[in-house]
Model the fold of this input.
Amino acid sequence: MLASLKKKETYTRYFKSFKFAFYCMTHPLDGYWDLTHEKRGSLAVANTILILTLVARIASLQFTSFIFNRVYWPEVNIFLYLGSIVFPLALWVVGNWALTTLFDGKARLPQIYMATCYAMLPYPLFQFPLIIFSNVVTVNEAEFYTLINTIVLIFCGIYIVVAMMQIHEYTMSKTILFTAFSIFAMLVIVFILLLFFSMISQGIAYFVSIVREILFRI
Done:
């Protein structure tokens, strides 16, 4: 009985948090403040939004009209398309968190991830109707599809900036500066990763060459 009540409370909290994600869209300043400070957010909902975003990305590739999206499936690497969302998200969260001490940010790593995912909700929410819309418009009406798609992406970017401002308790000017430094931190992380993998590959190649030389002499 106790386990059943606890499970029911978990589901109730999940659906309340998911409903709250829509409140954040219409009331971003209050919403993203309450997301962390009032603990109205949920990592489970954040993960759900991320999964919906990935599904929307794949569905867009598969079902968007060929007028807007010409895909040759034998050459498509599905993991690269999923990585085009997951990898920048991971870079943003880590880079953002790494600068919190320098900029006196208040949010922790899970809160940055949660707020960013909540800010991404407009993408899956509008992408599925846009897929249907793309299959009914003509070539002459293609600008409407492109315009709506661009507006959705811009709003996602604005929501992310507002979310960072609220969870870190920054002013708008400091948030813009912090966002610029976060993007720079992402580039630095990419550079370090490329340098690391380059060194690893060179080390492996050197080790393989030594082994081959030993085997050749034997």
